[in-house]
Amino acid sequence: MTFLKVIQWVVWKDLITEIRSRETLSSMLFFAMIVILVFSFSFSMDQDAVRELIAGIIWVAFAFTGIIGLGKSFTVELHNDCLEYLQLSPAPKGAIYLGKMTANLLFMLTVEILLFPLFVLFFNLDVVEEIGLLLLIFFLATLGLSAVGTLFSALTVQIRAREVMLPVLLLPLAVPVMIAAVEATRGALNGAPLSLYSQWLELLIIFNVIFTVASFWLFELILDS
Amino acid sequence: MITIQSVQLSKSYGFYKIFEDLSFSIPAGECFALFGPNGAGKTTLLQVLATLTRPTSGRFEILGYDGITEKPAIRNSVMVLAHGSYLYDDLNAVENIQFASALRGKSPTFQEITRALDFVNIGAFRDLKIRFFSAGMKKRLGLAKVFLIQPKVLFLDEPYNALDDAGVGITNDLIRDLLKKGGTAFMTTHDRIKATQVASQTGILRQGTLHPFNLESQTTNDLS
Asked: Cα–Cα–Cα angle for A179, A185, A186, nearest 5°?
């Protein structure tokens, strides 16, 4: 019960803080819109080329936007030494990790849901039939990024060059998520049968289970070191 | 009963020894005031005892729990009032208390929180975001958390900084109340006059070693 309450309170605190400050979401949205604009004006693609490349473009925008949000996840805890309070509290550290991870997941999904219509608009995508599947892919891949990203955000928060170190450490580990997300998104956007790309969804699920469990156990060590 | 027991506790950063072979014990119901010049290692010692930093060697126990291997049990009974306020700027006073209490498995009612805020005389500002609080008000909010959570051991790092006379009175009242209930306090301070009002044991940390400090006979020069 206490475990679930701690998760709930950490999510609540991060959401309330963000709703009031709007620091993370606004910077994520601003960056993502620039990416969409640059890509949409850089390529003059026919519809076939769009279908081949758009999945990669979407995930470049989502991943780098997510990194901005993940980077801020623990820097807010440095102010007034709140990170020290988290460390000193008797609350299960795994619950704090899951709370932070859930809040990051919600921020990233919010931005993705706001951005995706812009991709549809700028690249003239037909997504009506596959929207449910696309949302599932977005959820699974974003969960993977959030699971690893939250851990690395905590790991790099005390480093002076944290803005550089977070993507340097996170992106190589997130490569399987990125590849699986791009392949599954491409399959869904092209209207291919699910059986042709379901292995990528399975990879996302396996990655999420392994890295959420590993990060859950490692978080206490990182917070205490 | 001994609440804080330190045995040959040492801490170094690289080749630089902060303190070495500190052995002392603080019984339940007593307040220990630690003096010392800037850079003597007072805050580092407090951080070690509060389980924020590992000692380089030696061992210590808080309430009978080993300081290295039984951190969760210690953290359950200990509270720290440090230089940082541990407050979120975009939450108001009530929300900050609710969050801090939740992390300690407590869920005080709104009335209890209001009573705690009134005790430290900031009840009128309960809905104000912390970003608008002065340093003294933040310090008082920290005291309100102590009032609500009632820890068995309280660590205070320079508790009188930024507080007016009334705030100092509230701090010392809270410490006296804690001691009366069998709790223990450990504070680092430069203010021997204010510390005299509550501390029953004193020491001075100088050049990495702990010396007894006599509140009556020693002068301010001894602290620098």
From this structure: 90
